[in-house]
Structures are given as structure tokens and as C-alpha cells.
Design goal:
The complex is a heterodimer of chains A (362) and B (317). Chain A has 362 residues and is an all-alpha fold. Chain A has a domain of 115 residues. Helix content of chain A is 64%, strand content 0%. Chain A is elongated and about 95 Å long. Chain B is 48% helix and 1% strand. Chain B has 14 helices and 2 strands; from the N terminus they run H-H-H-H-H-H-H-H-H-H-H-H-E-E-H-H. In chain B, helix 3 runs parallel beside helix 5, helix 3 runs parallel beside helix 13 and helix 7 packs parallel to helix 9. The longest helix of chain B has 14 residues. In chain B, 57% of the residues are buried. The chains are: A mainly alpha (362), B mainly alpha (317). At the A-B interface, helix 3, helix 4, helix 8, helix 10 and helix 12 of A face helix 2, helix 10 and helix 11 of B.
Chain lengths: 362, 317
């Protein structure tokens, strides 16, 4: 359902199909806090919206006016935000709010009424997904849109699955770490399914950016929850192989090191005993570049009883600088010393680790 | 002087905040109009931390706050706006700053908040149903300040938060969602306020949090994301609550926050040389308070209010 009739540019007050309706102006009360100067056409649209809303008229023309209000509202803040030099991207609290709710006093009600009309008209909800897609372009952080989308998807059930996955994929192609998109995507997978290609999708995102922590998080989500993959233990071997490859490519990447540990969850002994884990540490240490996470992983292994071969001792020795205590009696304390030196920002953390070493650590 | 930590432009920031409070026609205030309640909390708490809360018209603010209350008991972002749990907490916090919680019908507000708890213990933000651990924190923080935590099912609330714990020790907005410093702050605070911090792996989470500090001394919110002054609050408060704040380099963080000031016009921005706003001004100053920058009041990491305000609520009856 197009939000505006083909070529329909006339204001609502001039359209014959609205001639029987008396528009209802906004009641700001006696002391409006901020008399926002909305554009004239938006004011008029909202006046007509109010008329059908208060009359509870759930008709096709009501549906059209909600679409107009939504589009104009989107227009209001898309235009204004482009004038602004604000950077809300990292701001958790404002993500939903500022970008999505500039005219919040009306927006939530408009979407809600639209849902009532869609139900009353028994509307084609696949079309509705298309409508939302158009509105969402440029508003990837608007909570109302995500909520409405979720409502439609729930009604359509598994029919909506591929559209929902496509929709979030599109948002993520513009911002691969968009927290709302990921949250919605996880909801879709759990409620509607569509797990089949998710691991491949994660793989693709990681090919685009191996540092994408959201993609690593999603990967974990998939391997633990997908009904097609057999669960964490079944996937462990192939995932360890994959992760080791990622680590070798970029040893300074925090995510795969944490992911590797996560593959063993509560089974620390299996993690310690997996030769691939200790071996990737040794490989990175021997290359002598970006060794911080390799060192901290080795430290964790040692704290869990890992027995290092001479190769490990030599590799850590090679990383020591002359000013360090060369006589550190065991490997674990040596690793802590090296880390305190290499990662001075966190010198207190590494000193604490050294202090806390279990008595029998190698 | 070589190596000296820079200055906090207290006067400039005070003037900046007062100007934001007053002006209603400039662009920033129009954009922020619907979340003015949050803005009031950020601005006024900053003033209090700087010892300048007496520079505002208390009566005018209190009466405006109460005008924002909806018949449901919740508060909207501004007069005539729909209620939401976000603005309800800010309203309670603003009233607490002025020691005016007594103007509230405490049961009415508490019932609104308690009514947002779901079967699984989670909280919705408003009647439209969005679920997020942010709202768990907000509900618990508000009800704790109002001393009405008994109106919710605390055990279920805690269980829901714990279900959002990830293998890196962090927390996301919903179960399985990526760990994010903002969400971590919310979850850790909520657990702290309900005596449930034993659910947190403090060593593991502490390490994740201190890894947020990047070369410049600034903090980011997730691995490989850009740093932002607001994480000075979220990461640091979380570290304080789990007794691991000494794991970050405090001097470097102080320097970063001070570099984010607009020394000409006042206010603090997300990173150096960006546009300032009252949100980042609050988090920058509150972060400095946590870092014991001289001249600032102590701030409570869980309630996000000056410590003397919190003490007044709990200890002076």
C-alpha cells in the first residue's frame, strides 16, 4: 500500500475523500514548553490523524494518514539530523531516543493505531514489511520501527523469516555492529527460525572485518543455539580450527582469543589439554609480534595446570627486555612481568595476576 | 608545567549547563525536547557535583518535573509526553537532588514501575513492551531510591539479569546479546543494588572492562569500537562496584576527559574537538569525580547521584 497515491501532492484538506472530516489541532495546554515549529504539511497531517484516531476509524484512509505521518516524521528528523554535527553512534541511551523519538509524543500512538487498522482491515502484512523497509531507510536506530517490524513478523510467523533476515542484513551492511539490528536478528532466529545460513553469514562478516566483535558474538550464538548444528561440543573442533586461523592472521584481535576460551565454556581441563590452544600461543609468541593476548592466554593455561615445554620457556625468554628480572623462578611470574612491561596501561592488573598465582604454577 | 594534569573549566561548564536549561529555541534544545527529563538529570547532577546546584530555580524545576507525570504514575520526557521508565528514573533522581522525594505519591510511581516487570523477571520500558536490561537497572534503581523494592519480584529480576551474562563475563541487553559497557553498567548496578554481586565473575569482567582502555587513555564500550567520554562513567562505575578500578590507568583517563572539554564555551564532548552536549558533560564530570579529581563531590556508582544525596535518603530518617 503506497503511502501516497500516485501523484497525490494536494494537502489533505483539499482531497475530496477527506472532505467529511474535521481536523483536530494539537492541544499543547496553556503553557507549551517548546512550541516546535513543525512544517505546515506535517501539522495538517497530524490534525487529520487525530480526527480519525479519536473517532477510532479503522479504515483505508486512516491507514494512509498514518503512513503519511510516519513518513513525514521520519523526514523531520532525517533532515534535521543531517544539519547536526552530533555523533550518537556510540551513545547507548540516545540511540533509540534522539534519532527515533524527536516527535515522540505522536509517533508511538501513530504506530499503535496503524497496527489496529491493519488488523481491522486484515491487511497483507507482507506489504507491510515493504512499507517498514522504506521507512527504515535512514532510520536504522528507530525503536518504533523495530517494534512494529517485530509485531508484523510475529503475526506472519515463519513466512516472515527470510524477509526479516534480509532486512537486518541490509542494516548490518551499512553498520555491521548496529546493536539494534543484532538484537532483532537474534530475536528472529529464536522466534521464527532461519538458522540454516547463519554460520555462513557470520563467516562472511568476519571475512569483511575479522575484528567485528558483534559477528564473533553471533557466531557463538549460532553454534550454541542452532538446531542444525549439534551444539557446542559437536562444533568445537571445527570452530577451534577456524578460530586459530583468525588468531594467526591478527594476533592483536581480542575477539577470537575470547571466543577460543568460550568454546570450552566450563570445561577448563579440555581447554588446557587441547594442543591447538597452547600451540597457537607458541606460534604467536615465537613470531614476537602482537603477543599480549598470547601471553595472557598462556598465563591462564599455566594457572589451570598447563605444563609448558622448553619451547614456551624459550619463547617467553626471547620477549624479556634487559630491565626485567631475568631470574623469575617460574614461567608464570615471567609472563606477568613481561605483560606488565608490554601492556603498561594495565600494569596493575598484571601485577595483581602475579600476586594471585596459584602455588604450583609452572 | 610539564606533566601537570590540565584544568577542569568549572565556571565554563556551569554557564554551559545553565544556558542549556534556559534556552528552548536553539537547535540542541529542539532535538532534545522529548528527553528533557534526562537532560535535566544530567545537567543538574553535574551542577551538584560541581557544588553549584544552588544556581538554579529549584521550585520552577520541581513543578516542571511534576507536570511531566502521567496519570499512570510514570513520567514523560517533557510535559504532555508519553511515560517511559527512562524518564521516570530521571524524575526520581532530580527530585532526590533537591531532597524533594516527599512531593511524590511514592506508591503511585512505584506501582507504575513495578507494573513493567514481565513474567520472566525482565522489565519493559513502557506499555509498548521493549525489553532490555537497561530497564531492569532503571526499575531497581528507582525503586531502591523510593525504598519500594518489595513491589517487584527481585529474585526473578536477578535471574533475568544473570541470564544475560556472557562468557566474557559481560552482559548484553537480552540473553545472547553482545557484551556492551553500557549494558554491563546496568546489570552490575542492578546486581549491586539487590545484594547479588556474587553472580559476577569480578576477575573476568574486571579484565574485560580494563581492556576497554585504548592507547589515548580513553575507554570504548566494546572491542574495536571508538572510545567515548561516556564510557568513563559506565566502565569506571562498573569497575568500582566490583573493586577493580585500579586496573585502569587513571591519569591517562583524566587527561582524555579534560581534552574533551570545550574550554571556550564550556561543556564536554564524546571525544576531543567534537560538539559538546549535556549528556557527555555529565559523564565526563562524573567520571572525573570517580577518578577523585579535586573539587568534585563523590558520586555513587550505582545510583549515579552524589553520595551525600544517597546518604540523605537512607540515613537521615
Amino acid at each position: 500500500m503506497e503511502w501516497k497515491e500516485e501523484g497525490e501532492e494536494r494537502p489533505l484538506s483539499q482531497r475530496p475523500e477527506w472532505s467529511d472530516v474535521t481536523p483536530v489541532p494539537q492541544d499543547d495546554g496553556p503553557n507549551p514548553v517548546v512550541p516546535i515549529a513543525y512544517k505546515d504539511d506535517f501539522t495538517e497531517t497530524m490534525d487529520y490523524f487525530r480526527a480519525v484516531y479519536f473517532a477510532d476509524e479503522r479504515s483505508l484512509r486512516s491507514l494512509h494518514v498514518t503512513a503519511e505521518a510516519i513518513h513525514m516524521n521520519a523526514g523531520n528528523y532525517t533532515v534535521t539530523l543531517s544539519n547536526l554535527d552530533f555523533d550518537f553512534a556510540e551513545n547507548l541511551f540516545l540511540e533509540n531516543e534522539a534519532i527515533g523519538r524527536i516527535a515522540s509524543r505522536v509517533e508511538a500512538v501513530v504506530w499503535h493505531f496503524r497496527r489496529l487498522i491493519l488488523e481491522a482491515l486484515n491487511a497483507d502484512l507482507h506489504e507491510e514489511l515493504n512499507f517498514i523497509k522504506k521507512v527504515a531507510n535512514g532510520n536504522p536506530k528507530n525503536y518504533q520501527i523495530w517494534h512494529h517490524r517485530r509485531w508484523v513478523a510475529e503475526k506472519l510467523g515463519s513466512d516472515a523469516t527470510s524477509k526479516e533476515l534480509d532486512f537486518t542484513k541490509k542494516i548490518l551492511s551499512l553498520d555491521a555492529k548496529n546493536y539494534h539490528a543484532w538484537s532483532h536478528r537474534q530475536w528472529v532466529l529464536q522466534e521464527l527460525g532461519g538458522w540454516e545460513d547463519e554460520l555462513d553469514y557470520c563467516k562472511q562478516l568476519l571475512e569483511d572485518d575479522i575484528f567485528n566483535n558483534s559477528a564473533w558474538n553471533q557466531r557463538y550464538f549460532v553454534i550454541t543455539k542452532s538446531p542444525f548444528l549439534g551444539g557446542l561440543e559437536a562444533m568445537r573442533e571445527s570452530e577451534v580450527n577456524y578460530t586459530v586461523g583468525a588468531i594467526i592472521a591478527k594476533p592483536e584481535n581480542e575477539s577470537p582469543w575470547r571466543y577460543l576460551r568460550g568454546l570450552y565454556k566450563d570445561d577448563a581441563q579440555s581447554w588446557v589439554n587441547d594442543p591447538q590452544v597452547s600451540s597457537v600461543c607458541l606460534t604467536v609468541l615465537s613470531a614476537k609480534r602482537n603477543t599480549v593476548f598470547a601471553l595472557s592466554t598462556l598465563l591462564d593455561l599455566l594457572c589451570h595446570g598447563f605444563q609448558p615445554s622448553q619451547d614456551f620457556i624459550n619463547a617467553v625468554d626471547a620477549l624479556k627486555t634487559p630491565d626485567l628480572d631475568q631470574s623469575d623462578s617460574n614461567l608464570a611470574t615471567a609472563v606477568c612481568s613481561v605483560l606488565g612491561h608490554m601492556d603498561p596501561m594495565r600494569v596493575n592488573y598484571w601485577a595483581w595476576r602475579k600476586n594471585k598465582l596459584p602455588a604450583q604454577t609452572a | 608545567m610539564e606533566g601537570q594534569i590540565g584544568d577542569l573549566e568549572v565556571e565554563k561548564h556551569v554557564q554551559y549547563i545553565l544556558s542549556v536549561e534556559k534556552r528552548k529555541d536553539n537547535f540542541e534544545s529542539v532535538v532534545m525536547e522529548h528527553l528533557r527529563m534526562n537532560g535535566a538529570y544530567w545537567g543538574l547532577t553535574t551542577l551538584d557535583l560541581l557544588g553549584k546546584l544552588d544556581m538554579v530555580d529549584e521550585d520552577e524545576i520541581i513543578s516542571w518535573v511534576m507536570e511531566c507525570q502521567h496519570e499512570s504514575g510514570g513520567f514523560g520526557g517533557n510535559v504532555g509526553h508519553d511515560p517511559h521508565i527512562l524518564y521516570t528514573l530521571s524524575a526520581v533522581q532530580v527530585l532526590a537532588l533537591f531532597d524533594k522525594l516527599n512531593v511524590l505519591d511514592i506508591d503511585k510511581v512505584s506501582n507504575y514501575i513495578a507494573g513493567l516487570q514481565n513474567e520472566d523477571g525482565s522489565f519493559s520500558g513502557d506499555m509498548w513492551g521493549e525489553i532490555d536490561t537497561r530497564f531492569s537497572y532503571i526499575a531497581i534503581c528507582s525503586l531502591s531510591l523510593l525504598q519500594r523494592l518489595d513491589k517487584i519480584n527481585v529474585e526473578k529480576a536477578v535471574n533475568y539479569i544473570v541470564s544475560c551474562k556472557n562468557l566474557d563475563g559481560g552482559f548484553g541487553c537480552t540473553p545472547g546479546a553482545e557484551s556492551h559497557a553500557g549494558q554491563i553498567f546496568c546489570c552490575v548496578s542492578a546486581l549491586a543494588l539487590t545484594g547479588s554481586l556474587h553472580h559476577v565473575d569480578k576477575d573476568l569482567l574486571g579484565w574485560w572492562l580494563c581492556e576497554r582502555q585504548v592507547k589515548s587513555g580513553a575507554l570504548n564500550g566494546r572491542p574495536e569500537k571508538l572510545p567515548d567520554v561516556c564510557y568513563s562513567w559506565w566502565v569506571l562505575s562498573s569497575l568500582i562496584m566490583i573493586d577493580r578500578a585500579h586496573w585502569i590507568d587513571k591519569e591517562k583517563l583524566i587527561k582524555f576527559i579534560l581534552d574533551c572539554q570545550d574550554k571556550e564555551n564550556g561543556g564536554i564532548s564524546d571525544r576531543p574537538d567534537d560538539a559538546v552536549d549535556v549528556f557527555h558533560t555529565y559523564f565526563g564530570v562524573a567520571g572525573l569525580a570517580h577518578l577523585e579529581y579535586p573539587g568534585l563531590k563523590a558520586v555513587d556508582p550505582a545510583y549515579a547521584l552524589p553520595v551525600d544525596v544517597v546518604n540523605r535518603i537512607f540515613f537521615s530518617r
